[in-house]
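Researcher: Structure prediction, please.
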Amino acid sequence: MKNLRLEVIKYAKMLNSKKLSALRSGNISIRYKDGFLITPSGARYSSLKSKDIVYISIKGDFDKKKGIPSSEWRFHQDIYINKRGAKAIVHAHSNCATAISTHGKGIPAFHYMVAMAGGNNIKCAKYATYGTRELSKNILKALKQRNACLIGNHGQITFSENLSKAFELAEEVENLSNQYIKALKIGKPKILSSKEMNKVLSKAKN
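Model: Predicted structure follows.
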């Protein structure tokens, strides 16, 4: 378990170093046994220690004496329950993805790399107060047949089979968000057809 705790810390620090989230914002988790390990509430990632990473059972139980988990642990729990392929989760308040999310809009197929999120667009979950079950439900809806989405007036979330891939996807979502914003400044970008995106999705699976 120590190695997994250190891996969570590694990617939590990368939220800061890769400029996906500042200071304490965003959170990282990884599936472990009958539950998951997650970053703690209110701690600067630069000062995290192995003992700070909190274990939560899939039922939502944790030992408060050993630390308080991120206030947003509920949507991590719900993703692990509902997505078998989710072994690791990255949630970030990255600048461009968050900017788009404040309009309650997702990202259409302006670029074929949108398919990396699992579909022909990247959806935006409806806003709800952070840490609530309502937000979890909204996120799960936006993640239907997807492994990434924006979160209204909040940020973005990704999951994958390991933290490396989940983090890389979060970087890609932020990159696409940046490109989409720039494309909109020029005018209305051409959107790739569903037929073309289906071809891309088929190729991406291989």
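Model: The helical segments are 2-17, 73-82, 95-101, 133-142, 163-186, 194-205.
Researcher: Thanks, that helps.
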